[in-house]
UniProtKB/TrEMBL annotation:
UniProt GO MF annotations: carboxypeptidase activity; peptidyl-dipeptidase activity
Pfam annotation, one family: Peptidase_S51
Family statement: Belongs to the peptidase S51 family.
Cited InterPro entries: Class_I_gatase-like, Peptidase_S51, Peptidase_S51_cyanophycinase
Transmembrane segments: none
SUPFAM superfamilies cross-referenced by the UniProt entry: Class I glutamine amidotransferase-like
Protein's UniProt keywords contain Protease: yes
Species lineage: Bacteria, Pseudomonadati, Pseudomonadota, Betaproteobacteria, Burkholderiales
Name the UniProt record assigns to this protein: Cyanophycinase
Amino acid sequence: MLNLARRYLQFLLLVLLAAGQAQAATAAAPTIPPGGPKGSLVIIGGALRGENAAVWKRIVELAGGPGARIAVFGSASASPDVAGKNNIEVLNSYGADAFFVPVAVKLEGSDYRIAANDQAIADAVRHADGAYFVGGNQARITEALRKKDGSSTRVLDALWAMYRNGGVIAGTSAGAAIMSETMFYDASSVLSTLKRGVADGMELSPGLGFVGKDVFVDQHLLVRGRFGRMLPAMLAKGYKTGLGIDENTSMIIHGNRDVEVLGYKGALLIDLSGATFTPGDFNVSNARLSYLDNGDRFNLQNGVFTPSPEKLANKLDPAKPYYRGPLFFADILGNTTVVDLMHRLIDSDQADAIGLTLGSPRDLQPELGFEFRFSRTKESIGYVSAISDMNSVFNIRLDVLPILIRQPLYQYK
């Protein structure tokens, strides 16, 4: 109780400071029309390390630089006060002036329903320069920030106001999942999702939608092969564009809808604008996949790819392939396997590459597996860095077909 009282007194001091700053600026501040202008999003795929200075510094920079007031939401965590404190310390080490927002389902000694509609808390968030959502369970974030009827709480309205006024909203893992209007909620394995599909209230639930109505977001993407589960979710909800971000890596979405990749690995762009789907077992044709590495950009409005400066002059020549011979991958949902396949295919003498996924013979539907066929087209382009082992691959065709796995799959010699 003593810690809770101390934390509440600290928060009141922050609110008074924010209110004073807001009062001085009110006369000059225009009314923000619904829908815009907008600030920036920093969508992080999870497992963000404290020493990943490029991402942390960019969050602070987008919030205004040294001294930026960043509201930290520990809402997704099972220990929101501890997670909030830890992330505040990291943000402050990179120059921010971060503060804890006491709105969380698991926060002891507090009723999140009351806190989420507290005017003083909402005012502090509204007049911040940015917000940061820690990882955990994304369902706790939406439960804390939405009323039971699905409408917005005052704190959620304040977040939107801050964002529309040019602020930055960042989030890692669960904090990334909430960025789109639809998020994964209680999904099973990727293969199970391909076999059994998705449904609202089961595998899917509403997110907070900061990225807009037209883009689906997923996280922990490459290390967990989650591009495979994005496909049925996007088809079920009518999304044409999906962005999946890997761990310790971020996608920065600027106000002009430019997506910039920054961090350790990269992101997958899934384009279903020309795809077709056959009813029955999961089956999709003519999906398009692109891999964006550190420094690459893609504009969501005009569809233009821009490789990082160190790759721009090193476009791969299809007439001079490095890899030769058939390309086959037995576990396409393995850790970064899809990127390894795309890198090899774009610099290969082969027109296509095959990846499989199948389950245990003791699993449900052990006879059902899937073939992922990746193909180069005339729009497929690859770039390689002149100074490091980084690649970019744009516009690879993907077809997914259900296959029959005969049992037993193998016999002992």
